[in-house]
Q: What sequence folds into this?
């Protein structure tokens, strides 16, 4: 849900969804034609403070999109049905999430899913490196 403060307009908050050239994420509508550094689109911040979950690059996931026979794994999600197997070569289609700088804003959301093979050379794909400060280490 969107929240509004006195003086804000609905249009300023809704441009992500409907305006022709305004975007809060790095998508085709932003017309940059390339990836950007994290934080260039601060209005894309999630409730927990994570930036760029939508747009910029499709993010690789370990989840398989299809099984060895080429069939898409069914919904609802089942963690033990084989889709989370790490085994497999570059011909195993894996899930991608979040949209890309070259894609339309309607696909720029963390729930957007796509799939491709890791062996493909795709400049709109990448991965998120995250480090948690909450870990035990003997270092």
A:
């Amino acid at each position: 849900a969107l929240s509004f403060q006195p003086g804000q307009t609905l249009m300023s908050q809704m441009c992500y969804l409907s305006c022709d050239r305004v975007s809060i994420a790095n998508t085709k509508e932003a017309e940059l034609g390339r990836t950007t550094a994290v934080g260039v689109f601060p209005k894309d911040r999630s409730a927990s403070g994570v930036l760029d979950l939508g747009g910029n690059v499709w993010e690789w996931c370990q989840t398989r999109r299809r099984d060895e026979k080429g069939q898409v794994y069914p919904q609802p999600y089942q963690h033990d049905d084989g889709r989370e197997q790490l085994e497999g070569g570059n011909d195993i289609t894996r899930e991608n999430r979040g949209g890309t700088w070259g894609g339309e804003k309607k696909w720029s959301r963390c729930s957007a899913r796509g799939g491709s093979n890791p062996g493909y050379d795709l400049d709109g794909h990448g991965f998120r490196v995250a480090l948690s400060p909450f870990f035990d280490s003997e270092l």
